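Today's session is about reading a structure prediction critically. Students often jump straight to the picture, but the first step is always the sequence itself: look for stretches that repeat, for charged clusters, for runs of hydrophobic residues. Only then move on to the predicted structure, which in these notes is written as discrete structure tokens rather than atom positions. Here is the chain we will use throughout the hour.
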Amino acid sequence: MQENKNQNEQVEELDMNHLMQIRRDKLKELQEEGKDPYEITKFNRTNTAGEIKANYEQFAEKDVTVAGRIIAKRIMGKASFCTIQDSNEKIQSYVSINDLGEESYKAFKTFDIGDFIGITGFVFKTRTEEISVHAKEVTLLSKSLRPLPEKFHGLKDVDLRYRQRYVDLIMNPEVKRTFEIRSQIIREIRNILDEKGYLEVDTPMLNTISGGATAKPFITHHNALNLDMYLRIATELNLKRLIVGGYDKVYEMGRIFRNEGMDIRHNPEFTTIELYEAYADYHDMMDMVEELFSKCSMKVLGTTKVTYQGQEIDLTPGWKRITMIDSIKEACGVDFNEIKTDEEAVALAKERGIEIPDKTKETRGDVISLFFDEYVEKTLVQPTFIYDYPIEISPLAKKKKEDPRLTERFEVFIGGREYGNAFSELNDPIDQYERFKKQVEAREAGDDEAGMMDEDFIQALEYGMPPTGGLGIGIDRFIMLLTDSASIRDVLLFPTMKPIHNT
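Below is the predicted structure for this chain, in token form.
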């Protein structure tokens, strides 16, 4: 069976090479005739296909000039039809020898599917009521040397679609729509925050310290400084420096890099937004999440009720809010309010068959987190805020006054997945220093995801930072939700792919 597959691939490769040679020969002939399409630097298009089709009465019988890629062609002796596609729409054209003349019509017949052409002519409707352009002049603008996938089968290989996104966009209009929605969502987020008085800023992607999150960084080397540097795993610490500096509301939307595994929810580089607001707390950030998600959904979908992978999800504000400890009690009956010591928690984990992967994490807080992962996360279909996280897993969040073993932190879950993380930010420099020290100890014990000591950030806090609410949202996952995309690769134009090595 594998042998037959290899033989078929060899035949397809031979066919492709033959077709490409034919197209190269056509190009060579054009160049020898002084008609090299690649020498054209500008084409004066007057209208798009979408404009014409949406406003036919305005354009009927009037001359227009359109341009796009040939996606269909039907030759009928002395007259032909072709369809071109521009960035958003396609339109048919009627092309005849009587309008173009013998030489130009002969040249038109040699054009291939995939070629870019410009058409000047008048707008009319065919007998079947299809809005079309009656061509008076056709210009070859660019030659396609590689045939597009055969239309009936399209580009179905998912791996190939991600690797050759340019072909995917040509062949699959719904893919283009996904990325148009992505752009709309990002624009709407910015509009909402800008209207609230937030300042959008840029912070470094290269840092001398990896911090602001628990993740393994990418390491690079700066030759001039002879210094190892880290691609950022979060924007948090620099944004909080700006709160110290006197800005009340700041945000940054941009790329984050984490040297970790890849799956349908994770790509080594991805887009997040982090925002920080002085004089706010994590409850204010819950309100912010509800507003961002519901308004973006209304903007791009016209509703706050969405379907994601067959699940009906209601993003209307008023989401469930429950503490991590209470959510565990709801799911499996274990009440960690009754468990006071690390030893009790570890014993319970063993009793339940929950493995603690790291000896340094045999604490009550880490066990609470493991119980949540095991029993709760996958059950959170409707939007839910899980709040009051253990201090052991929240090194940058403020302690709860009522129970210093917990922090004022939440994560938001939808469809069994985490979409955002927020704190009442820790602004006590002494407490922050001690927590950094614990992160350093964990790192020295072999945890390559633990943070580093950031002396400059401690110094910034020593100048004073007001009470602050902070929030981070995974933009790609949010876009997955609103476009009903199963994989993060479906919402990244160019996802990270393992190279193919031809042998």
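Discussion point for the tutorial: The longest helix spans residues 2-32.
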